[in-house]
Design brief:
The protein is mostly helical. It folds into two domains: about 120 residues, no CATH class; about 70 residues, no CATH class. Helices cover about 30% and strands about 0% of the residues. It has six helices and no strands. It is flat and about 50 Å long.
């Protein structure tokens, strides 16, 4: 079975969220045929046991993020911007002159969800961005945006092999996934966690 091209959706997510202006797509329906608002009070990063029969896949979660940025708290609303200004006054400020690993200043990240747009940053680069641009990236008030474990760069095994020594977010080795469809979302795993399994356990996963 051909593997899904998961990284190809990044530009589509960026473009759609920008076009929606931090609003949900009113035409979107998930696998339960529910609108975006059904996700407003739960995580858009994991599935529940009751969702397992629907067969959510990693690609479905990417589509959810792109279509429901407001309900999933994937972008910065006007209310969030006001909160940021208040937090700035109270002393949570961006570091002047800082440039991230791609050469962007904190101003570049204004009105963007840093956890989504830093999709291809290294782990160290992503952490550095949040540390140095806390006001712009919404770190001053962590409740204003979902703390999604959005994918940054991660290793990947060669086709037909497993990455030696790899363990997933729950401490399981690739052998524990033998025969499983790893492009499917499983209970207890975030999108990033499931993506890491799919990329590193190519021999074990079916």
């Amino acid at each position: 079975m051909q593997k899904e091209q998961k990284w190809d959706v990044k530009s589509k997510i960026d473009a759609k969220i920008d076009a929606l202006k931090c609003q949900d797509d009113p035409t979107f329906r998930d696998k339960m045929k529910d609108a975006c608002t059904s996700w407003s009070d739960r995580s858009c990063d994991q599935v529940r046991k009751r969702d397992m029969a629907l067969g959510y896949r990693i690609a479905d979660m990417f589509e959810l993020w792109a279509s429901c940025p407001k309900s999933c708290k994937m972008c910065v609303t006007k209310t969030d911007q006001v909160k940021n200004i208040v937090k700035d006054i109270r002393g949570c400020e961006d570091k002047p002159g800082f440039e991230d690993e791609k050469g962007h200043t904190c101003d570049f990240w204004n009105n963007k969800n840093c956890r989504l747009w830093a999709f291809r940053y290294s782990e160290a680069g992503f952490d550095e961005l949040l540390r140095n641009c806390p006001q712009t990236c919404g770190q001053c008030d962590r409740k204003q945006k979902n703390d999604l474990n959005l994918p940054t760069e991660m290793g990947e095994a060669a086709d037909g092999t497993d990455t030696p020594g790899f363990v997933d977010q729950n401490g399981k080795p690739c052998s524990a996934w033998k025969g499983y469809d790893c492009d499917r979302m499983w209970v207890g795993y975030t999108v990033r966690g499931q993506l890491a399994i799919s990329k590193n356990c190519k021999a074990s996963c079916k």
